[in-house]
Amino acid sequence: MWFWIFYSLLVFLFLGYAGVLIYLRLGLNRANFVQDDQIYPSVSVVVCAHNEQKNLPACLNLLDNQQYPMDKLEFIIVNDRSSDRTEEILQSFTEQRANFHFLSIRDRLPFFAPKKRAIDTAVKQAQGDIILLTDADGRPGPQWVKSMVQYFTPDTDMVIGYAPYQVKPSGHKIKKILALEYFSHAAVACATTGLNYPVTCVGTNMAYRKPLYLDLDGFGPYKNRISGDDDLFLTRVRECGNHTIKYAVDHKTHVYNNPPALWSKFIHQRVRYASKGFDYPIQVTLALIALYMFNVLMVAGLAALFLNWTVFVYTLPLFLMKGLMEFRFLNKASRMLCDRRYLHYFPVAAILHLPYVVAFGLLGQILNYQWAASAKHTKLEKTIPEEVL
After folding, report:
1. Do 113 and 51 belong together in one domain?
2. Would strands 158-160 and 245-247 be described as parallel, antiparallel, or unpaired?
3. Number of domains the chain is built from
4. Is the dihedral of CA 111, 115, 120, 125 positive or negative?
5. SS3 for 300?
6. pLDDT, tens digit (0-9, with 9 covering 90-100), for 142-171
7. How many helices (H) and strands (E) does the chain have?
8. Residue 363 belongs to what domain range?
9. Tens of pLDDT along 208-248?
10. Does a structural domain hold residue 114?
11. Rounded to whole angstroms, how far apart are CA atoms 389 and 386?
């Protein structure tokens, strides 16, 4: 009896998952392509830096090489409580360039997450109509600004872009698998944007109009959340009015960044990502719960190889069909986003992805996590006064 209950639930969730993948493929067909007209709105590029002395010089030089009218472009770099040479680097670089400015934040405010506060400070001082964000470890190409703003038609409020991993050393297979997993997030972001319901984005490559940010009062109720300066703000834009959001598929909009260098950083990063599951609107949270339960049952069914052969035999075909549908979706997305580098690692990634989702989905709700090089944070931090932290 228990077997048929288990298998019926697994099949039900599989059918739902298959339907979602089919729907996402339709979303890719509706993704927005760049317009041909040359438009040059005023742009403020914002970068927040916390102890980024190793990453900043390369990022600043790439920003300085942007092919965009300099009278329409400014760069605001926020030194967020850095204890290394970040401020010294910024002071030296900006004093020689009129359109580069830096701000320094030296304290913390209760109920305002540090990075969100840094972004908020920069946006409110920005002169540009378009706010374009990246991170200190972001590596944009020379036409990044120009290509991103081409998506801002008069009715466009927000544009989200792809930030692929740049694997170094080039032969590192584990990082290539991580890059493929990271690409899958971009594929979902692109597809759901095409469906007019974008569910995720990355702060390394996103843009929005300054009036939109001000009208929404910035991060609003999410400003005390340590994580989510990207997709939680996207959620706010999506849920707070009829705003047009586009996904930039042009390869010139890509901003490369590095995968976590250490396993500890990778674990903390993924726990942080997973910790936001209950902060989304109820329909998104329920979908994430259903997806999590599907992966739990799939793992249990495949693990039954060592306990119950019948359960394993019934589960294996569903796993293979799941992998085939996922590959078709990622293959189509990889063509659209011009990134087919690591698709051949899919068979290995498909096997590892099941325990990965199960483990981090749970850990994200029960463990503390670490934000970059700063101290550990808990999900309850938003209720703790600053002097206690």
Report:
1. yes
2. parallel
3. 2
4. positive
5. helix
6. 999 999 999 999 999 999 999 999 998 888
7. 12, 11
8. 2-27+281-388
9. 999 999 999 999 999 998 877 899 999 999 998 899 999 99
10. yes
11. 5
